[in-house]
Amino acid sequence: MKREGYISWDEYFMGIAILSGKRSKDPGTQVGACIVNEDKKIVGVGYNGFPQGCNDDDFPWEREGEFLETKYPYVCHAELNAILNSIKNLKGCTLYVALFPCNECAKAIIQSGIREIVFLSEKYSGTPTDIASKKLLDSAGVKYRKLKPTNNVITLDFSE
């Protein structure tokens, strides 16, 4: 008889996305993303952070203040990093991401050929960027759905 209580594919890939987000140095928000092809193979991962070659000690991490004094003009979102770190042929793939994508990421998702988004949080639901994102995704026929995990906690134990 097979073992019971194993995680689903959705939980597995969302777990990879969450674990990837742990690489982010952002003190406020750590988001990870995982792109999976139709064969359930991971083809890209990413997390929110500054572009390659940019020293994260030379840029602000603040959320409030003058635009150029905040992280917003400089940080690459997890979704974009996963797309840029991918094998490049993402047609028909699924994106797993902890936080529903903003409108800027929605554009990159659509252009890359990703067909489905699985997310955990809609923290910014109803904001202008969320509304624009959903309008773009709906227009392009990209499906999205909120993951309802059966396991709220999965523990990694490196001593096993």
List the helices and strands and how they pair.
Blueprint: H1 9-21, E1 32-36, E2 42-47, H2 78-84, E3 94-99, H3 103-112, E4 116-121, H4 128-140, E5 143-146
Parallel strand pairs: 3-4, 4-5
Antiparallel strand pairs: 1-2, 1-3
Structure description:
There is one protein chain. This protein is α/β, with parallel strands linked by helices and 160 residues long. 27% of the residues lie in helices and 17% in strands. It has four helices and five strands; from the N terminus they run αββαβαβαβ. It has helices at residues 9-21, 78-84, 103-112, 128-140, and strands at 32-36, 42-47, 94-99, 116-121, 143-146. It has a five-stranded mixed β-sheet with strand order 2-1-3-4-5. α4 links the parallel β4 and β5. α3 (103-112) packs parallel to α4 (128-140). It is globular, with a radius of gyration of 16 Å. The model has no long low-confidence stretch (mean pLDDT 94).
